[in-house]
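Our consortium's second objective concerns turning raw sequence data into structural hypotheses that experimental partners can test. To show how far this objective has progressed, the report includes one record in full. It was chosen at random from the queue rather than selected for favorable results. The single chain below, 284 residues long, was entered without modification.
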Amino acid sequence: MALNLESVGSSTAPQLVSWDSRDVMLYALGVGAGQADPARELSFTTENSEGHTQRVLPSYGAIITDFLATEWVDVGEFNEEMLVHAEQRLEVFGELPVAGQAEVVTTVDGIYDKGSGALVVTTAIARDPHTGAEMVRSTASQFIRGEGGFGVTGPKASWERPERDPDCRITVGVREDQALIYRLSGDRNPLHSDPAYAALAGFPRPILHGMCSYGITARLLLNAYCDGDPGRFRSLDARFSAPVYPGDELTVEVWALGDGELRFVVRRGGGEVVLDRGRFGFTG
């Protein structure tokens, strides 16, 4: 098996995708909306509640670019069981519509040698099909174990944890059925639902989707720092550093840097870091 380094710079043909009110409500439930304080998040979980206009969680943008759009550039042959989601950056350029369409193009930004494996970085851009305006930009880094050794190095991103206690800690429980709900938004990987498949991958039981943990974190930060207003969301970055299991407790530790930027990590059970090198951008 070998990766195709010539695929760097290649893009998919534009793909038209669509979603509706039910899709965005199901996603909101999949990332825990309404569990701790149902009345606060009715705008994300219902379409007919008095005093609430339905709105979309900004992290649904990653569903639009990475799961509704299914076309991918051929980056070569590799064992898909060796692939793990390493990092994710999401930018949203304005509030997403409750029902709509987007034209998505995905480009291979780079394939980098990390020694024990290769890092494949892609960016998917969703545009309004009528105006061409950019709606969502999603940059994903996928690590493929065993595919390193070809000598192409990539840029190094800087991130430092502030040398002080977090300014805020937000703790939430993950439901035992969270992965079963989240998978209905598009990621049907049996690693997150089938005990037999999880065992083959070396896990004692199915793990939570990394992008579910990411969406939970995005929702908590939106509520804590943007008063739940999706129009104030700008970007979210994180590195996936350890698995999360349904039933776990997650704690988001946040440092406010000013000018609408936060840094954060997410811990499982108050100990192991499961999302690292986090950045959250928003408007005041």
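The partners drew two points from this record. Residues 192 and 223 are 27 Å apart (CA to CA). The domain at 5-282 is CATH 3.10.129.10 (Thiol Ester Dehydrase; Chain A). Both points have been shared with the crystallography group to help prioritize constructs.
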